[in-house]
Amino acid sequence: MSRYGKVAVLYGGMSSERDVSLKSGQAVLAALQARGVDAHGIDVGRDLAARLAEGYDRAFIALHGRFGEDGCVQGMLEVMGIPYTGSGVAASAVAMDKMLTKAVLRAACVPTPDFRLLEDEQDLGSAAALGLPLIVKPVSEGSSIGVSKVLSLADLDQAFHKARAYGPVLAESCITGPEYTCALLGDRALPVIRLETPQSFYDYEAKYLLNTTRYHCPSGLPAGEERAMQALAQATFKALGARGWGRVDIMAAADGALYVLELNTVPGMTDHSLVPMAARAAGLSFEDLVLAILSETLGAP
Question: pTM of the full predicted structure?
Answer without folding.
Answer: 0.91
